[in-house]
Automatic annotation (TrEMBL):
Signal peptide: none annotated. GO terms for molecular function: hydrolase activity. Keywords: Hydrolase. Residues 38-239 form the AB hydrolase-1 domain. This is Alpha/beta hydrolase. Coiled coil: none annotated. GO terms for cellular component: membrane.
């Protein structure tokens, strides 16, 4: 375990072994009146993706960042199973003696994982914030895009193994401190092992959705679902060649419709459109991170307010 200071906030980092996995984690700040925040990273990303939100949120409550098994700075010697994802988080919290109620914040595929935790470990999860999440419901257009993404991901594994710059994804962390940006790139998008594990996790999409559906009616955690309002610009020279503006806009509209459905199923939630922000920009741009942090803190305040 390594301890260091970021301004006046305590930052601890380390690894926890559980069920054949080694989970890398970072714990920031101290327990306060508000629920603690646990962050679920997007596809193949390490927890450095939250670099811009960390200083905005840490003065208000305790933050737990971690990498899922096999991804980023974590490792595993086992095949992926949907229910292990939540049991890993539960074991990590127990190892760190974190027993307070938590709000899970997830972006992209991490937003879907937040829903999984709400279903599988409801005694720990008192709420969730899903930032432009992978939908919990099937959708032909979105699922077709995810199938294409699996092909792109497989190509990325090969590119990473060859040690070549990835022509599909341009860096999205230009606003990050240099050390955090380099770590994110090395652990995530230039790591063949992390990309392979992320592809295996993506294969769990149907079973994750089923696990969430199976618990409907048994859980009512409050949730805030935020949809990106602007289409993402193509990143990387090859992605720009494959760019299809009309398909991107149709996918954006389908995502927004699915997000509204997630909060219309009587689970105690609300939906918001981030009109000026893109999918990745909600965490990787200064304006998007500030918007997301403001909404997360407002959501926390509603949970802390007396009924």
């Amino acid at each position: 375990m390594v301890s260091r200071a970021q301004t006046t906030l305590a930052v601890r980092e380390g690894c926890v072994e559980h069920d054949g996995a080694r989970l890398a984690w970072r714990l920031v700040g101290q327990a306060r009146r508000l629920p603690m925040l646990v962050f679920e990273n997007g596809w193949s990303a390490s927890f450095q993706q939250w670099t811009l939100l960390q200083p905005l949120l840490a003065p208000h409550t305790q933050l737990l960042f971690y990498d899922r098994a096999g991804i980023g700075g974590s490792a595993h010697g086992r095949g992926p199973v949907a229910n292990r994802i939540s049991s890993d988080l539960d074991a990590l919290c127990r190892s760190l003696n974190l027993s307070r109620p938590m709000v899970v914040v997830g972006q992209s595929y991490g937003g879907l994982i937040a829903g999984l935790h709400g279903a599988q470990i409801p005694s720990r999860v008192c709420g969730m914030v899903q930032l432009d999440p992978t939908p919990e419901l099937d959708d032909p257009l979105i699922d077709g895009q995810l199938a294409l993404f699996r092909t792109i991901g497989a190509a990325s594994v090969l590119i990473a193994r060859l040690g070549l710059p990835n022509p599909l994804f341009a860096p999205l962390w230009e606003h990050f401190p240099k050390a955090e940006a380099e770590q994110l790139e090395r652990l995530s998008y230039r790591s063949a092992a992390s990309l392979r594990a992320a592809l295996a996790e993506l294969q769990l999409l149907a079973s994750i959705r089923q696990a969430i559906r199976s618990q409907l009616g048994q859980r009512r955690q409050p949730r805030l679902v935020i949809s990106a309002g602007s289409p993402s610009a193509a990143s990387g020279w090859l992605a720009r060649r494959l760019h299809n503006e009309n398909k991107l806009r149709r996918t954006l509209a389908a995502m927004q419709a699915q997000h509204r459905k997630q909060v219309e199923r009587g689970l105690g939630g609300s939906w918001e459109l981030a009109a000026a922000h893109t999918h990745g920009g909600l965490v990787s741009s200064p304006d998007g991170a500030a918007f997301s942090a403001t909404r997360i803190l407002a959501f926390l305040q509603t949970l802390a307010s007396p009924a």
